[in-house]
Amino acid sequence: MLDLGAESTRPFAEPVPEGEEIARLMPVVARLREQRPDAVLSVDTLKAGTARAALEGGADIINDVSACVADPALLDVLAEYKPGYVLMHSQGSPREMQVNPRYGNVVEEILAFFEEHLARLVKAGLPEDRIVLDPGIGFGKNKDHTVAILKGLERFASLGRPLYVGLSRKSMFREILGLELEQRAEATRLAVALLAARGFSLWEIGVAESVFHMVSLTFEVPSGMAAGLLGRRKTLVAGGGCMVLSNLLMAFAPDLFFICLAMALSALANAMFSGTASALTYDSLKQCGRTDDYLRVSANCSQLSLLATAVGSLASTLERFLRFSGFYLLSAAFEGTAAAATALMTEPIVTETQARREKQTFRDLPGQLARLVRDSITALRATPLAAKLIVSAAVLCIPSYLTKMFVQQRLVELGWPTALLFVPMLLSGFASMLGVEAARRLHPKSLRRLYAVCALLCGGGCALVGAAPVLGCIFGCMLVQGVIDAYLLHEDQKLNDVIPSDQRATLISVDSMVYSLLMIPASPLVGAVGDAFGQAGAGLAVLGVLVALTGTAALGRKTRAS
After folding, report:
1. What is the pLDDT of residues 495-536, one digit of tens each?
2. Which of 58, 117, 432, 443 is the 20 to 30 Å CA partner of 243?
3. Using CA atoms, how far apart are residues 65 and 426, in angstroms rounded to an integer?
4. 3-state helix vs strand vs coil in the chain, percent to 5
């Protein structure tokens, strides 16, 4: 990206007439657009006429140091062309902004400024997803103000917009480090590197996701064993406690470390839930001799869960009131309520081992653990079908998670309004419910053939999310979620049928462990491909092709076997 300016905005600079500014600027814009058509051109101006000329000439972004205050007509230009826009905070004009700038709390005052002017720009007709925020280092700030802003940058993240921070060779490096202009390059590079470490690129989102899946991988089987040894009800309650802590951390996390810690707690909770709820459902039906009803009951549970998730996505319409921290606090309240309800459950007892669980002491646990490990390995070796089911489910679940993770970013790139980002999540939830309903009525003769069809459809849907226009992107996400939930319903029933009750929670946890093992490299790689191509969808398109190839391979093996 190249930022071009024909009027100086340094402290004490005199303004330049609009005609002269345009005459200086436009030949450079035209030449750059001709020689570098791929370049992103940003024009630094506070005048509506200059901005209009620049946008007509091929500029992509308007960088305005006055927030449309110096020339209110600029609002109309922005609403008409809808370019990228840098909303910058400045106390006063360049001629007087560095004359004794004063603030009560500089960070909170800039935050209030951003909130006010974001609303003003959106009301005028500029989509919010076209706006980035610049706290205006050096524009009406002294050394102490600058240090406070750099320390409090995460505070501005609550607005949900990217930050644009200009540090290059600023006078703060003289005031803080005693460096003259020609000596400030290294300080600039170091400051930018430190700020980048506090941002969140697609790749860094992938890193945080990898932390989630590494913890999930580490604790999947131990949590399943804990459910088998200590009781499934206690394990679910402990998982609920971890989710409450995770949401509280996410609400107030000051940096990437605490976000990763919250992700780790969330992963630990998911590991505790994984297999435990399914095993409880199956054994509850077994206790009353109704295991044939498992597919129907599991489908009902799945649809209720999906409906709750879909309805929950409507909460995104409250974003302006709740902000991101409010969502996490609300989620913590729901998780705490669910954990309290779980504590009131009665656990089904269907084997002698489960009946003895309440009487065993901590001294008995090592021996019980060793026996559980041996029995689980024996059960897995005796049922090779279980291993195949586990791997197939793990492969299909990768695009399920990543499409939901990246579809909103992809839609924003395509110009979808941020206020309507709940719509694809809501539609995906209903698609999942339809998939479960279709699976309930489906009686496949061959799970291999079902997997092949599902992998082809899922891969195609993933590729649509990554490469198609808006409607194709949304349809692709719906296709992925519906197909995967249809397959998982049959995979889950078959897996429960072929494994013993005492090892059920452990072996179903292996299912999730294999998924986590695949997600550890998949999540950052998909993000890295997106960063490399500059589009969130690039990695998803590649992933979709790979998943579809596994379906083709399954069909090929079936043909050779025939």
Report:
1. 777 776 655 555 666 666 677 678 778 877 887 787 677 666
2. 432
3. 39
4. 75, 5, 20
Predicted pLDDT at 454: 93
Spatial CB neighbours of 21, under 8 Å, sequence gap ≥ 6 = 6, 7, 45, 47, 50
3-state secondary structure 318-354: HHHHHHHHHHHHHHHHHHHHHHHHHHCCCCCCCCHHH
User: What was the pLDDT predicted at 198?
Assistant: 41
Q: Tokens standing for 347?
A: 């656990």
pLDDT under 50: residue ranges of the chain: 168-207, 559-562
| pLDDT for the residue 136 | 79
pLDDT at 257: 73
The number of residues making up the chain comes to: 562
Beta strands 84-88 and 2-5 are unpaired
What are the residues whose beta carbons fall under 8 Å from the beta carbon of 15, sequence distance 6 or more? 7, 94, 95
Return phi, psi of residue 88, to 5°.
Answer: -110, 145
Q: Please identify which residue in the block is written with the tokens 């692709």.
A: 476
Q: Which amino acid is at 60?
A: D
How confident is the model at residue 258, as a pLDDT? 78
pLDDT attached to residue 80: 92
List residues bridging with 86 in a β-sheet: 63, 132
Residues 525-556 as b or e (16 or more Cβ within 10 Å = b) = bbbbbbbeeebbbbbbbbbbebbbebbeebbe
